[in-house]
Write a structure and sequence with these properties.
Helix content is 38%, strand content 14%. The chain is an alpha/beta fold. The chain has 2 domains: 146 residues, Rossmann fold, CATH 3.40.50; 120 residues, Rossmann fold. The strands form 3 sheets. Strands 2-1-3-4 form a 4-stranded parallel β-sheet, sandwiched between helices. The chain has a 4-stranded parallel β-sheet with strand order 7-5-9-10. Helix 5 runs antiparallel to helix 6, helix 6 packs parallel to helix 11 and helix 7 packs across helix 11. The radius of gyration is 22 Å and the shape is globular. The N terminus is likely disordered.
Length: 277
């Protein structure tokens, strides 16, 4: 009781009544991850967003929606001040103590953490059910599955071995549990560091040389920033990727947000890793 009284004083503008249990069709939604914000929009429920995490890349149509903080500055009080009946959270990206605190105030928190193309489909279906937008979700998923099926490599295609570079000094790559690695598998290629633990492990230049990938892809926000990374690999003409001139840059924003729109990035990835004639 004392804890709740203190909280009421801190957010005095709120009417401090118990939050009702989640209804089938929540009307006040706070999203704590950009990909979840994208998903709400994709499912046609953006008019119900009353709070979003600010990553500096929100679309103009959400300019009126209150920001509840950035990744490192999420505020429980700012979130609760929006009086949400549903909070959409990112398991890997939101502090667990924050989510526990929100649940302690009897607010429904739904967590999502898609790490594969199949996970994206499951998350879309679940979110559609939570929002009462199941029909819209099925339409989105039908298109998503058709697009993915069209990208499947032909039987018998020789897999290309790929090194994905996330940073240059030190070198970081993606492990097998990461969405990008799953996209490579879907394209019929192999991640040369798929067996490493974690999601974005650090590797040595010697390790890349030993793996001798057929293709090197720098994943970066801007192509101009990653071009020097590829230039550095040209010092090693013995690398298959260098000898065959298969050094590429791919915009990271097309493959890092786990929504059905990721298929656009997967299509570009598949084009890069398809075997050369």
């Amino acid at each position: 009781m004392r804890r709740r009284l203190i909280w009421c004083l801190r957010v005095a503008l709120l009417v401090c009544l118990p939050v009702a249990s989640l209804q089938a069709d929540p009307q006040r939604i706070v999203s704590l991850a950009p990909f979840l914000t994208d998903m709400v929009q994709l499912l046609g429920a953006s008019d119900r967003l009353v709070g979003v995490l600010d990553d500096g890349q929100l679309p103009p149509e959400l300019a009126h929606v209150p920001r509840v903080g950035a990744y490192q500055t999420l505020s429980a009080e700012s979130i609760v001040a929006q009086r949400p009946d549903l909070i959409l959270a990112w398991t890997s990206g939101n502090p667990p103590e924050l989510l526990q605190r929100l649940r302690g105030w009897n607010i429904e928190v739904a967590e999502f953490d898609p790490q594969s193309l199949a996970d994206i489909a499951s998350a879309t279906q679940r979110l559609g059910e939570l929002l009462g937008q199941s029909a819209q979700a099925e339409q989105v998923l039908s298109r998503y599955r058709q697009q993915l099926q069209a990208l499947e490599p032909p039987d018998g295609q020789a897999p290309q071995r790929v090194f994905i570079q996330l940073w240059d000094n030190p070198l970081y790559t993606v492990a097998g549990g990461q969405l990008v690695s799953d996209a490579l598998r879907h394209c019929g290629a192999q991640n040369v560091f798929a067996e490493l633990p974690g999601l974005a492990p650090q590797v040595g230049r010697e390790g890349v040389l030993a793996a001798n990938p057929d293709i090197i892809i720098a994943l970066a926000d801007q192509a101009i920033s990653a071009q020097p990374w590829l230039d550095d690999w040209r010092r090693f003409p013995e690398l298959k990727a260098v000898a065959s001139k298969r050094l590429y840059v791919l915009a990271s924003d097309q493959l890092v947000r786990p929504t059905p729109r990721v298929v656009e990035g997967v299509a570009k990835l598949c084009a890069l890793v398809s075997p050369q004639p």
